[in-house]
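This part of the workshop introduces the protein records we will be handling. A record pairs a protein's sequence with a compact description of its fold. Comparing a sequence with its tokens is the quickest way to learn the format. The record below serves as our worked example for the rest of this section:
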Amino acid sequence: MYNNSPGYWALLLIAAGEAAGMVLAARVLLHYFQLESYQFRGYFKTILRQWLPAFLPGVLLEIVPVVSFSVAVALFIPLVLITNSFEVTFTLLVVPFVVSPVILGLVLHFKAKETPQEKKFALTARMKRLYVALALVCLATVGLNWWGVLACDDLERVNEAYGALGLILYIRPGLFLPLLVALAAIIAVPFERLFFRKVSYDAER
């Protein structure tokens, strides 16, 4: 796929939209992590105890691309006949792929915001850094996932080469959102230590 082709830029937008939806939908998980004082053990215990609200965002983010793809396939030929333009049709069908995960992420974000908790979610400096780490993790995993799908775009060939393992390429990263939050927290640990050292050094001066 050439870097100046419409499909390349459309894929970048779709990946960015999916990653943005994941970050927005992760608010409930980040709140769990904050309630457990950023401790992994308590976080995973909460995930197991609150498994439905923890994994539901990822399941919904998995369903959205499937529904969008089904709608795009169904509307492709009618839209080409109506618009008499492949480029216009392509643009019209890419928009739902980009926008739908973001809208879903916003809905889940505000839904989690309205859910009563023992302590309110606090957007502290540490949480902002964790959000940045999560955004990078989501972009990386979504990008690698789409790259894998495009590299093995022939499903029958993938199944012949890898068997059932080949289907992993078609599983969206959103399903593993609780683990991605934990991975982002692990990545953020060295930066938190540097920040703590800097604060301690400034306090001693």
